[in-house]
Amino acid sequence: MVEKMSGAVTYPKGYLAAGARAGLKESGNDLALVASECPAVAAGVFTTNIFQAAPVTVSKSRVPASSVRAVVANSGNANACTGEQGMLDALSMTSAVAQQLGVPADSVLVASTGVIGHAMPMDKINAGIVDAVRSLSVDGGASAARAIMTTDTFPKEAAIDVSIGGCMVRIGGMVKGSGMICPNVATMLAFITTDAAISPEMLQKCLSRSAEISFNGLTVDGDTSTNDSVFVLANGMAGNKRIESDGPELDAFQSALDEVSTSLAKQVAIDGEGATKMVEITVRGTESFEDARQIAKTIANSPLVKTAMFGNDPNWGRVLAAAGRAGVGFDPKSVKLFFGDIALLRHGEPVDFPQDAAHDLLTQPEVKVLLEVGAGSGTATVWTCDFSYDYIKINAEYHT
Amino acid sequence: MVEKMSGAVTYPKGYLAAGARAGLKESGNDLALVASECPAVAAGVFTTNIFQAAPVTVSKSRVPASSVRAVVANSGNANACTGEQGMLDALSMTSAVAQQLGVPADSVLVASTGVIGHAMPMDKINAGIVDAVRSLSVDGGASAARAIMTTDTFPKEAAIDVSIGGCMVRIGGMVKGSGMICPNVATMLAFITTDAAISPEMLQKCLSRSAEISFNGLTVDGDTSTNDSVFVLANGMAGNKRIESDGPELDAFQSALDEVSTSLAKQVAIDGEGATKMVEITVRGTESFEDARQIAKTIANSPLVKTAMFGNDPNWGRVLAAAGRAGVGFDPKSVKLFFGDIALLRHGEPVDFPQDAAHDLLTQPEVKVLLEVGAGSGTATVWTCDFSYDYIKINAEYHT
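Predict the joint structure of the above. Result:
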C-alpha cells in the first residue's frame, strides 16, 4: 500500500537529497537537489505546451538515460520565455551541480517553477547549489519536498514497497503544484525515485503509462504549463533482476509506480488553490479510455460544477450539461449519475434523492462523482477541486 | 450603425411583442412573446449539447420555415431533462399561443431558460400566454426583453437600419444570457426580427454565418448549454425585392445582421456573472479562422487569465501559456502581444512596457487583447469577461 511519507524521495536505497535557500522566493528554501549514489536509469514526461521553458528543453534531451546522477530544481523563477540566455542558464545549472558532485554535466537533470519571463539570478542559484550539495543527506527528502513548493500549502510525498521477483523494491516521490487543477495548471513538478533495476526503455514506458492515468488526470495533454515535468530515477540498488521486458516483474513495478503517481496527483488536487475539497470524477461506459477522460475532464473543468461543489449543492444539471458538451457521443437516456453512493439520475432523468444526505456528502473533504454513460468498457478518473473565493483572491492578487 | 435600442424587436415593421408574468420566477415578468402581423420566414441555430431541452427539439424541427407567426419564451424553467412530459409541454406551449392568435400550431416557435430537471408548471404558463397575447403591442419589445432575463442585470437589445436595393430595411434583436461566458455558458437565447424579404434558405445561411462570428465567439460549438437558441424572423414588410441568392443585397443584409448579432453578443459578455469588465480577445496570423478561434477561446476560458484581468495585472505569461496549450501549432518566436495599444511581447519575448499605463488600461470597462502568432490570414475575435468574487458568490449560492 502507498503511504504518505515525509522524505519519500530518499526512502529507496542510495538516494540523497537536500533543500537549500538560493533567495529567489521571499522566504524559505527554493532550491532542491536529489542525487543517486550510483548512476541511475532515468525517464521523464514533459509539458506539451508550445512554450517550453529552458529547463524542459534541456532535461527532455537527456532522457531516457542510463546514467543520471542528480536532478536539481528551483522554485521562484520558471526560466520560461527567457530566450537564449535562459537555455544557457539551464545548462549552467546542470553543470554547476555536476562540477560540485564530480560527475558528467549531462548526467544532471533540471526543472524550474515560478514567474515567467524573468532572467534567472544565476549568482543566487549557484550559491544555492553549493549549499545544497553540501547538505545532501539521506534525511534530506523532506527538505527537498518543501523547497519545490510555490503556492502549495503542504509538501506532497508518497512511498511504497513492492516485491519484485522476491526482492523488496522501494519507490518514493514528491510533487509540487497547486494552481487551479485543470484547465490551466500552475506548474506541476514531480520527482520519483526507486532502487529498482530496470532498463531505460521499460522505465520510460512505465512512467508514460503512470503519468497518463495519474498526473494527466490533473493536467490532461494540452492543458500543461510551460514547465510541467515528471522525472523518475531508478538506480538498481534493490538488487532485483533487471527488468528488461514485459512480464510479472514489470507488472508489479508498473502497479506500484501507478500507486505512487496517483497518490501524488491526488495530493495536488487536494491542495488546489483555495480548494475546500477534492473532487474525484469517474466516467464509465464509453467506448474508450480517451472518451471517458474527455467527458470527465469537461466536467472537472466546468466553473459551474466547481462553484456548485463549493456551495455544497448537488447540482446534477451542471454535471450533465458539461458531459453533454464534451464532444463525445452517447445516449442521453442511458445516463446514470451518483454523488458518493447517492443516485441522482437514472435513464438520463432525475430521481428522488435525499437532499440532506447529498448536501452532507458534499461537505466532506473528498467527494466522488460517478457518471455512467453506456455499456462500453471505457473508464477514466480525474481529480480536481472546488472553486472558492480564495481561488479568486490568490490569482487576482498575485501580480507579475 | 448598430444602436442599443429599447424595444428593438418591434423596431422592424409588423412586429408586436409582450412580456407577462407567469409566476415561474420569484418576481418580475417571465414570459415573452414576439409575433409577426403576417407569416414570416424564420431560421434558427441551436445548442450542440447532447442534452437538448424539449423546446430546442420542437423549434429545431420547425426551421427554416416560410410562415412562422410567433416565438414564445419563458424564463425560470428550462424544460430540460424532463422526458416525454417535457416534449408534450413544449408542444403545448406552441399550440396555446397558436390557438390564442388563431394561427397554425406549427407556426409558433418556443424557447425556455431556467432550472433544469423540473416539470413545467403548465397552468402558470398557460395563464401567462393568455396575458401575453392580450398585451401584444408595437411598444412591447422592451417588456419582452426583460421577461427573458434570468441572472442578467440589464436587458440587451440592438437595432440597425440598412438600405437594400434602395429600400430601407430594419433589423432588431434581443438576447439574454449572463452565465460565465465560456466555457460553461448559462443559457443564451437570442431573438432577432427583420422586415426584410428573404428566402428561408438565404435567411438560414445568413444567421448561421452571423452566429458563427458573434454568439459562437461566446459559446463556441460544443460549449453550449441544453437550451441555447438563436432565432430570426423576416416578414418581408419592408417591401424590398426578396433576397433569394448571393449578391450585393445579400451582402448588405448579412453585414447588418452581423452587426446586430455582434452587438448582442458583446452585451452578453459585458453582463457576465460578476464581471467587472468585458475582454475582447483577437488572435491573428493563423492559417484559418478555426485555428485563430481555438487559440482565442483557450485564452478566454483560462481562469488564470480571467483572474489576472480582475486584478488589473498585465500578466502576459498567463496569456502566452494558454495560447501555447490551445492545440494549434505556431512558432513561439513569432508571437506579438498587445493589451490595447501597449506592446507586451515581440518575437515571443517580453519587451519593456509602461507598467502604470498597462495597469490603468486594465481598469477600463472594456479591455482589448491582441495576439499575433504568425503571418497567416486567419483571424478571430471572442468576447469574455473577468472572473471576480461575485462570480463565485452567484454560482456557489445558487441552489437547485
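The radius of gyration of chain A is 21 Å.
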